[in-house]
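User: I'm curious whether this sequence folds into something compact or stays loose and floppy. Could you predict its structure so I can see for myself?
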Amino acid sequence: MNNIKTIFTIKDLENISGIKAHTIRIWEKRYNLFQPKRTDTNIRYYSCESLLKLLNVVLLNKHNYKISKIAEMSEEQVKITARELSFKHAVGDEALNSFKVSMFQFDKILFNNTYNKLLHKKTFRQIFKDVFVPFLESIGLLWQTDTLLPAHEHFISNLIIQKIQLNTENLEYSATKEDLTYVLFLPDGEIHEIGLLYLNYELVLRGYRTIYLGQSLPLSNLSYFFDSDTEMCFVSSMTVKPYEDKIKAYFNEIDEILNSTSHRFIGIGNKAMLVENQQFNSFIKVYPSVIKVLEEI
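Assistant: Here's the prediction. I'll summarize afterward.
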């Protein structure tokens, strides 16, 4: 945790905002929108406050506010005007930008207002596919470029998880397809469960019986289900675990366990796709994403 990043380079700002570094420099020099600091070696860097202001400026600019006019606003005016726009126009790119601002400001109210505004235009399923999925993908890119703080990712992920759980609980459907039970779990050490939670929602919506077991579950803990006479489809999402040097052995173990049963197994994610070309029994399938799984169910 001592290595948590609290300052940002201009490249970080480009990655997060989608605005080219060259344009940011023009806004900085011509309009004095940002006041970067410099390291002892004269390298320019930006604070979290500068990042938040940039996201607000981008939102205003997309709504036809000229940069020259934005530059005349006070810091508070920029923030308030951007927030009002976020509440009023929470669709498409505006919603994505609002969620970014919410994430970096730890602003639960902005997140919920943006989400609720989306609900006037989209169903929950549309919001997840059209907004949350692209947003989560952008978070993944921010992780790769080392520009995202763990606290930010945890904050926004938990808010999205709450929405998935709420919508799942609100489903009033009873299981109509009782011939197959889906057992959803994450491998030992894996904690990234948003995709799996959403898949659980979709399965319940479609009338399937599901058993959601959650994060970090060793295969040895599933013996009760492996021994069941009821046909089951085990589903696991693999973002971090198992590690690359362990993934083939993990699938080999599953192959051996399920070989004498009527059960099936679905592996989802980048780690699962590492064994795409391996020879396993037909009851094992891998998919790159939850969306791809849903296309075949």
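Summary: The radius of gyration is 23 Å. The chain has 14 helices and seven strands.
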